[in-house]
Amino acid sequence: MSSLNRLWRNLAFRIGVIVLGLLTIIAIAAPYLGTVDPAVLDYALINRPAGEEVTFTLPSGSVAHTLWMGSDAYGRDIYSRVIYGTRISLWVAICVAVIAVSVGMLLGVAAGFFRRVDSLIMRTMDGLMAFPSILLAIALVAALGADLWTVVIAVAVPEIPRVVRLVRSMVLTLREEPFVEAAIALATPTSKILRKHILPNAIAPLIVQGTFIAASAVLTEAALSFLGLGLPTDIPTWGNIMAEGRVQFSQYPGNVMFPALFLVPTILAINLLGDGMRDALDPKFAKRTG
Predict the structure, then answer these.
(1) Which helix H or strand E contains 254, and what residues bound it?
(2) What domain range includes position 263?
(3) How many domains is the chain partitioned into structurally?
(4) 48, part of any domain
(5) What pLDDT sits at residue 153?
(6) Which pTM value belongs to this model?
(7) Does 106 map to a domain?
């Protein structure tokens, strides 16, 4: 049975793909699904309940629509902010996963294959891992300032050591395999050994690890925004929507609950996707289900 068939037969993988597919559609279609600009303030519409028909006053004129999720303490449409927040969360997840996996793969291969740089790279990674991820991200954002790419870098850096350790362990194992030793004995160029023998055998675990990093990135970005250290509030994210809503949670719980209803399924779907890929790409699991 091919890997693709095995993947699609996995229930967790299918659920993850479907949920993430829907979220991707929402993110792409945000300008059409959103009822009004998420940054528009209308102080005449502060803390309106969900389902109320209102008229937003815009520079271009008045726009009448339904507040599907109510409005916040600044008169902004929560529904539009949550929809646009999907874009930020998915973009952060993808960028963090790509950066962490790419950098971690390069450093991990170097540490595992070239013994002379192993100690230097791994001691540096151990130093980074000594800091709790969220504290390291907070420190980086505080030092570099809060914008989209700063947040991406701040979230990605704490994930790199985990990728490095994973890749290094795989490279150390593969380096002792007979086919790699034979290639070295035949004076095969190092770049070819890495390209033909090492990386193809390490790519599946890296893809799986990337999905878990993406899930962690969504949660960390939301935590940073919730603490007021993420993106500015004129850029809607699920985290800063909840951060602003927590002050009035007892009176208006929907201001926190509505973005949370998007945040939780997103993290769950990414984790299900990763679990499904891990099960389907695991040779032992393939033998049990083949």
Answers:
(1) helix 254-281
(2) 3-38+78-289
(3) 1
(4) no
(5) 92
(6) 0.86
(7) yes
